[in-house]
Amino acid sequence: MSADVKADQVLDAKGLSCPLPILKTKKAVEALSKNQVLKVETTDPGSKNDMASWAKRTGNEILKVEEGSGTFTFFIKKTA
Amino acid sequence: MANKKMTIIASKGSLDMAYPPLILATTAAAMDVDVTIFFTFFGLDIIKKGNADNLKISPIGNPAMPMPIPIPTLVGSLPGMEAMATSMMKSMFKKHGVASIGTLLDLAKESGVKLIACQMTMDVMGVKQSDIVDGVEFGGAAMWLDEASDSQINLFV
Fold first, then answer.
1. Is residue A18 annotated as part of the catalytic site, yes or no?
2. For position B30, which CATH number holds?
């Protein structure tokens, strides 16, 4: 995957704990059209694995994950 | 592909024990799982009108209960200790961005989680159908077993 992934929508889920980042991601992805990309920012350390499990189960694709200092940024393509 | 299915029996009415059913139900719904929660015994307190955000936690009988200072078991039974433990837990949840029970219940309903209240325990404990929040169905063991028989995940909390 190339370094540049363009997001169609951004979801700020920083400061939220399980299960809110997943619930909000689901809602935001549902609002997208197929093949659009959602950028989600979180601070919940559990969200890294949770997001992967969620994407696997719902058939959406995580294009890229960036880890900052205490933050996680996911680029999720709506493929389902 | 047909959605997976899950049922949860929610039998407890304390603040801490109300969380697992609602966290799992809302998350499962977000993962395209069809969810049913069966509220029975003290779990009914979660779906009584206006009660979801008034659930309490007791320091009694829970050695793992975090308290500002170590508190002997006997002291935990004094008046005011339950309120103190409850407000402490609530502020800890809030500080960490955890949704309240009321919010999770709303999110569960919004995402199509099927809610069933146990009619038998309602009768025993004097709970009327009008005491229960809207959007809940009423039934018994057979109704849960019907859902559970088709589910891959069945949990008792």
1. yes
2. 3.40.1260.10
How confident is the model over B2-21, as pLDDT tens digits? 899 999 999 999 999 999 99
Phi, psi of B88 (to 5 degrees): -65, -45
Mean pLDDT for B81-92 is 92
Packing angle, helices B15-30 and B81-95, rounded to 10:
30
Strand A61-67 vs strand A72-77: parallel, antiparallel, or unpaired? antiparallel
Q: Does A76 touch chain B (CB under 8 A)?
A: no
| Other residues' Cβ atoms within 10 Å of the Cβ of residue B20 | 14
- Report the distance separating Cα B5 and Cα B151, nearest Å: 4
pLDDT class for B1, splitting at 50, 70, 90?
Answer: low
**Distance in angstroms (rounded) separating the CA atoms of residues A34 and A53:** 20
User: Are B97 and A17 within 8 A, CB to CB?
Assistant: yes
Q: Measure B7 CA to nearest chain A CA, in Å.
A: 18
Q: Does any domain span residue B79?
A: no
- What is the set of domains in chain A, with CATH numbers? 9-77 (3.30.110.40)
The verdict on a CB contact (< 8 Å) between A20 and B23 is no
DSSP helix/strand/coil, A62: strand
Residue appearing with tokens 């200092």 = A69
Q: B118 lies in which domain range?
A: 5-55+101-156
